[in-house]
Specification:
single chain; 447 residues; alpha/beta; five-stranded parallel beta sheet; five-stranded mixed beta sheet; 19% strand; binds adenosine-5'-triphosphate; binds magnesium ion
Length: 447
């Protein structure tokens, strides 16, 4: 190797004082790649001892360290005539403006802000090495008064040190400003891309919901015809005495009804997601509504030989909400309770009470059925989600009831929650404001 090919740092002995082993290793690697000879000390006290022994060309030191911090170590170096000329670069995160004054007091030669750019670090090291000047032994700048951050400081360092340190601080600030501007530009570009992606996702979601809503609507007309005609044919078969056809016609009728319920659910969900579901607010008597719901659910209660217990005192009075949606939400919870309970009890309790000065209605639907595990409960309220893959074949359903119920309740400013224990039963609770208004509803109101 010729003299010219030698790496720039050859023959230069640098001491790193750093308590973080990882930081020290990274810094050491960067510097040794340039040919510098690098030694590491883990705190100020160890650093000072090594400086006294080795007299390195340059010291790069962290500030916050155990035993002796970077400032104290620097002060000791600058106080010692035999060490004074060794330049000290302090590593700082430059979050506290007082750091500048502390560095001046300690007699540091240069500041380098963390996190540093490798190239910038090397330029700074090279600069300090080439501009290395002997420190004057007497404090030429003694008594220099500095007003900074609302305080006055007397700086005892020499002029060259003050100048070097202040310029290095300014350079750091410029460098950081540049990095900040670059990040700002990158952030702007990212933000624009994100906005575009978000708009595209929203448009796609709306298109999907729109398509589903249209499709569901188109399917309902012919389906209603199938249901209607199969019903008519049943009656005609009875009139004509052709009883053989009746079971098959009944199957067509039942399958049609099932499909219609499913399509209605999908239509509801896609309308909610497309923001096209309106609330029709009216004032209704809660006890009357509960009586209607109980009458509708009766066949499902009896199907699995369950008992229905209703507790709805007349004092709960009237509420203002979307009657159809409250009724459907309760029906969904009750139909689940009946479906997942055999020869047990299904309960419906209604209460009212104030929360933070606002009157709320609480509808509690409990059962003594199969219950759920915490993992199963965590998946509830999502569309097409059932406790297990086998649920549909064993109990029927598609996993839309709870998703719709939650969205209906949230639209009215309330919510639905669940408590359950496997094998013991479940309790679903709907909470709604007694008076749903435009202020607590999360959707537009139909007028
Ligand atoms: N009372 C309950 N007891 C036990 N499990 C329940 C109960 N209610 C709901 N679940 C579980 O939550 C799942 C989702 O209920 P959800 O009402 O949304 O759908 P579904 O009843 O399966 O079908 P759909 O209501 O669309 O006909 C059910 O499949 C079941 O696994
Ligand atoms: Mg259901």
């Amino acid at each position: 190797m010729t003299a010219q090919e030698k790496p720039p740092g050859t023959g230069v002995d640098i001491l790193i004082v750093e308590d973080s082993a990882v930081q020290a290793l990274l810094l050491k690697r960067t510097l040794t790649q340039q040919g510098y000879t690098v030694t590491v000390a883990r705190d100020g006290a160890e650093g000072l001892a090594m400086i006294r022994e080795r007299k390195p060309t340059l010291v790069i030191s962290d500030i916050e360290m155990p035993h002796m911090d970077g400032y104290a170590m620097c002060r000791e170096i600058k106080r010692d005539e035999t060490l004074r000329d060794i330049p000290v670069i302090l590593l700082t995160s430059l979050t506290d403006p007082e750091d500048i004054v502390r560095g001046l007091h300690a007699g540091a030669d240069n500041y380098l802000t963390k996190p540093y750019d490798e190239e910038y670090l090397l330029t700074r090291v090279a600069y300090v090495l080439t501009n290395k000047k002997p420190r004057q032994s007497d404090n030429v700048g003694a008594g220099l008064e500095l007003h900074f951050a609302g305080k006055s400081h007397i700086i005892d360092s020499d002029r060259q040190q003050i100048l070097d340190l202040l310029i290095s601080t300014f350079e750091n600030a410029v460098q950081q400003n540049r990095a900040l501007l670059k990040t700002q530009l990158e952030l702007k570009a990212l933000n624009a891309a994100l906005q575009q992606a978000n708009a595209a996702a929203l448009a796609a979601s709306r298109a999907k919901s729109d398509f589903l809503a249209r499709m569901s609507h188109e399917l309902r007309t012919p389906l209603n015809a199938i249901i209607g005609y199969s019903e008519m044919l049943q009656e005609e078969a009875e009139d004509l005495g052709q009883a053989d056809f009746i079971p098959d016609l009944q199957k067509i009728y039942m399958a049609g009804k099932h499909l219609l319920a499913l399509i209605n659910d999908i239509l509801d969900l896609s309308k909610i997601e497309a923001g096209k579901m309106d609330l029709y607010l009216e004032t209704f008597d809660i006890a009357t509504m509960i009586r209607d719901v109980a009458a509708t659910i009766r066949p499902l209660v009896e199907k699995n030989a369950n008992t229905l217990q209703i507790l709805c005192p007349v004092e709960v009075g009237a509420m203002r909400a979307d009657l159809t949606k409250v009724r459907q939400s309760l029906f969904n919870l009750l139909s689940n309770a009946c479906k997942f309970t055999q020869q047990g009890t299904v309960g419906l309790t209604v209460t009212r009470g104030p929360v933070d000065g606002v009157a709320w209605a609480t509808f509690r639907v409990s059962d003594t059925g199969i219950g759920m595990t915490p993992a199963q409960m965590a998946r509830l309220f999502q569309a097409f989600s059932q406790a297990e893959a086998s649920t549909a074949s064993q109990y029927g359903g598609t996993g839309l009831g709870l998703a719709i119920t939650r969205r209906f309740c949230q639209m009215m400013g309330g919510d639905v929650s669940v408590e359950s224990e496997l094998g013991q039963g479940s309790t679903f609770t709907i909470r709604l404001p007694m008076e749903v208004t435009a202020a607590n509803a999360t959707t537009r109101l139909a007028v």
